[in-house]
Design goal:
This protein is an all-alpha fold and about 475 residues long. Helices cover about 70% and strands about 0% of the residues. The protein has one domain: Amino acid/polyamine transporter I. It is built from 20 helices and no strands. α6 packs antiparallel against α14, α7 crosses α14 and α13 packs antiparallel against α14. About 45% of the residues are buried. Keywords: Amino-acid transport, Cell membrane, Membrane, Transmembrane, Transmembrane helix, Transport. This is Amino acid permease. It holds the Pfam family AA_permease.
């Protein structure tokens, strides 16, 4: 192991695009979409469109900073540089915590999915095997990681495309199960209590679920330090991925609600299984299990990568333990991978000890963390613009769209989501946990980080009398 190595720029445009797809398309689409549909009915399509636009603005704001200054740690670094060290510290650690929580949930889900085929094998064996496998992949080389994530994402994307095409076939060519009395068609979007059956309140209530489904796309910024050509690959990935994710989500849910009455989706198992069964595919449950296993592995893989690179970047700035700075000869921050694997192992034990309802409340912090990170990205970009001269702004290679109105809209949207989460009882615990988390981070910053930074500044300001021998 070497501490003097640097991160290797082994990720190309293909890797980065599918890394973001793999991180953002997962459980939120395969299962979470049914919850959003129940809340808002067909009007959930509007929620996905509005949220998708806001998140695209977030990605453009991140892209403006990442192309200007591609570094490890990305948005935590930008928050530290343009807002202040405390902002960077809270943003970075909140993102790491989000990745850990999501990874814990996905690791648990993986064990359950494998039980579908091997019910007699203890769940911990599958979980341990997966953690060891992904740990090894993340330790080899970033290019190996990128290739694995590419192929895992291909499986998920192919399944979604197959479902969309199959659904369109059901809608327009009348292929449907004989026992089904529902006629597939666009009319199903409004004939069951209207397009907005629960009114504006239902539409607003589903926004937090919808926003969480897009969580993970910000990992594009994390790849900046290992991208082969950041000025080319990052703009291409940012411009392509948000639009594709928006199309995947909107098209998939549009097809779902056109085939089935919206109030029946998810009531008889997964919507994906329902569509495949209506196409006459008897092994629908097996196909879905392969897809969700792939989704879980892909998500855990990207979570380990994202959290590890964030910790590495923060360690370089003195905001995380210095041990996370250590790199292998291949340029991989190996200690962060080891720690993440250890945390996941502890999490497996906790899943058996903590009651399920309590664990779900804790997991809801991921929604708060996602919105908080996006908000800090937007505020960092605004702060950066204020520090640049007119000439420097004109020279930006990848400026944010619609300045200043688009970022203002996105900032207002994120604040609105946080307010709505506090308003609705189901999501209110996430706000309580999130605020507590931020307060603890502020205390930790005051106790451990700020004194070290102050002492470092004092040491740098002490004049050194050096005698030079002639």
């Amino acid at each position: 192991m070497s501490q003097n190595s640097t991160l290797q720029r082994g990720l190309n445009t293909r890797h980065i695009r599918f890394l973001a797809l793999g991180s953002a398309i997962g459980t939120g689409l395969f299962y979470g979409s049914a919850t959003a549909i129940k809340m808002a009915g067909p009007s959930v399509l509007l929620a996905y469109i509005v949220a998708g636009i806001a998140i695209y603005i977030v990605m453009r704001a991140l892209g403006e900073m990442a192309v200007q200054n591609p570094v490890s740690g990305s948005f935590s670094h930008y928050a530290s540089q343009y807002i202040g060290p405390l902002a960077g510290f809270t943003t970075g650690w909140t993102y790491v915590f989000e990745m850990i929580i999501v990874a814990l949930a996905d690791v648990t889900a993986f064990g359950i999915y494998m039980g579908f085929w091997y019910p007699d094998v203890p769940r911990w064996i599958w979980i341990l095997s997966l953690i060891m496998f992904l740990g090894a992949i993340n330790l080899i080389h970033v290019k190996v990681f990128g290739e694995l994530e590419f192929w895992l994402s291909i499986v998920k994307v192919s399944a979604i495309v197959a479902m969309i095409l199959g659904g369109i076939g059901l809608m327009f060519y009348g292929f449907h199960a004989d026992h089904s009395s529902v006629v597939p068609g666009i009319q199903n979007l409004w004939i069951y209590d209207g397009f907005m059956p629960h009114g504006i309140a239902g539409l607003v209530a589903c926004l937090s679920v919808v926003v969480f489904a897009f969580g993970g796309i910000e990992i594009i910024g994390i790849t900046a330090g290992e991208s082969q050509d950041p000025k080319t690959t990052l703009p291409k990935a940012i411009n392509a991925v948000p639009v594709r994710i928006l199309l995947f989500y909107v098209l998939t849910i549009f097809v779902l609600m056109s085939i089935f009455p919206w109030n029946q989706i998810g009531s008889q198992g997964s919507p994906f299984v329902q569509i495949f069964e209506n196409l006459g595919i008897q092994s629908a449950a097996t196909i879905l299990n392969i897809v969700v296993i792939t989704a879980a592995v892909s998500a855990i893989n990207s979570d380990v990568f994202g959290a590890g690179r964030m910790l590495y970047g923060m360690a370089n700035r003195g905001q995380a333990p210095r041990v996370f700075q250590k790199l292998s000869r291949n340029g991989v921050p190996w200690m962060t991978v080891v720690v993440m694997a250890g945390v996941l192992l502890i999490g497996v034990v906790l899943n058996y000890l903590i009651p399920e309802n309590v664990f779900m409340i804790i997991a809801s912090i991921a929604t708060f963390a996602t919105v908080w990170v996006w908000l800090m990205i937007l505020l960092s970009q605004v702060a950066m613009r204020r520090q640049l001269s007119t000439a420097e702004i004109k020279a930006l290679d990848f400026p944010v769209i619609g300045w200043p109105y688009a970022p203002a809209f996105a900032i207002g949207f994120m604040v609105f989501i946080l307010v709505m989460m506090g308003y609705f009882p189901d999501s209110r615990p996430a706000i309580y946990v999130g605020i507590t988390w931020l307060v603890l981070l502020m205390i930790a910053y005051r106790i451990w980080v700020k004194p070290q930074q102050n002492s470092g500044k004092q040491n740098n300001s002490i004049p050194q009398n050096i005698e030079i021998e002639s």
